[in-house]
Amino acid sequence: MSPAPPPDPEVVVSTTGLTRRFGPKTAVDTVDLTITRGEIFGFLGPNGSGKTTMMRMLTGLLIPSEGRARVLGVDLPGKPEPLKQKIGYMTQSFSHYRDLTVTENLDFAARIYGLPRRRRKARIETLLQRYDLEAQAHQIAGSMSGGQRQKLALAAAVLHEPQLLFLDEPTSAVDPETRRQFWARLFDLVDGGTTIIVSTHFMDEAERCHRIAILETGIKRIEGAPPDLMAGLKANVIEVTGDQLRHAKEVLDADAAVLSSAQIGARLRVLVRKDQADPETHVAALLHDAGPVTCHRTRANLEDVFVAATGGGAKRPAEAAA
Prior knowledge:
GO terms for molecular function: ATP binding. It comes from Meridianimarinicoccus marinus. This protein is an alpha/beta fold. 30% of the residues lie in helices and 29% in strands. The protein is built from 10 helices and 14 strands. The chain is elongated and about 75 Å long. The protein starts with 10 loop residues before the first strand and ends in a 13-residue tail after the last helix.
């Protein structure tokens, strides 16, 4: 019997059949993943889809019910202690002490990671400058804005220069401009060699990832690079404009060839099965009694992929988003 091949040094995370149950509820269901060095990998899904549970298992905070994972060369389940100095974890609630100043929070985090005094001081000064927190260095964290607290939480998570950074819905409480600036900082980290795993329910945020996995009720429905997933959608996207859109939606939703329809402002966005030869003509024919309408084909976006892959497209065939 030949020996097993050596681990691929470019693979940062790999899982096989990773499963977690809480009593009768299966939060994560037999998920297989491979995440490579230097990429931003996103878990996209609604609340309750298993995103946070996946992260907690990959950080060693939660023991899988079944299956295995290997994270930065550490086998899980097992002893996760070797991971502590290699990973950073930024939770949804921005983990810091609200009654301490910014500098005190960072100093406390650096001591937890065991940074020696000289390195601790240098890293805090560097991060205050890098994340535009110098003016808030002596400000009580609880008095800061959401965007400032987000920067503090990120600075604390990367103090020890982790190889792998976990971000659990890190921008859910900030405005779009702050979110954009935050992602610029993430790509700076990637350029420096950090691998990032992020969970989100924002489509525009998921599109920024190098690759994503869409989760629904703990099941990995689809995985890939966002452009590839959009290009490979096995459905046609038709936009409909007209005066009776609510009635038009009812008509469309009753048709077997229509996977889903959603009103977006003054138009309907309709997913039609790929095997429908002329989707525009088909949709127009369905709506002949719905008043004047116009129908035209348009490019798929990530929300279309998400709808086709999850319960949002309840009538979808199993392969619709593949």
